[in-house]
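---------- Forwarded message ----------

FYI, see the DUF2059 domain-containing protein record below. Original note from H. follows.
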Amino acid sequence: MTRKLILALLALVLAAAPAWAQPAAAPATAATAATVRQPGPESLALARELLRVARVEEGIYRAFELGVRQGAGDSATPELMTMVGEAFRDEFKWAEVEPQISALYAGLFSDDELRAMTAWHQTPVGRRVAETTAELSLGSQTIMGPYMQALMPRIMERVQEAAEWPTPGGR
């Protein structure tokens, strides 16, 4: 493999590492406690069905492939993509993350909402959204990355200025 390819793959892994490094309970606590309910067995079953119909597992594989292809650029030969894809499919275990993702969905959405989303994902438009979610996600990240990099220094400056202001009561 070329040095550029190795660096691209490393960058991809490092970019995703903060999300992957979260403890197992993090997805269920990502939203505020006020918005997440404790799901029961029926809610979890509805969420699992939604994930199946929405083709979330396929989307994860597709997003990984697109990220590698984008990161590797011209080095993304068919042989390389096959090798990386096989390695990811061998190492990524949907069965290990699906219960957490299902619990997140079941905690954020009511049973009626889960049923409605499942029904919607069975429409032509819903299927099209499922087919293009990886591209939309990667494209959004590509757009937002540089924008957020430019924005963060201004935000940090404002936060630092605000932190220097005296608070009520002189503390």
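H. also flagged this: Residues 36-164 form one domain.
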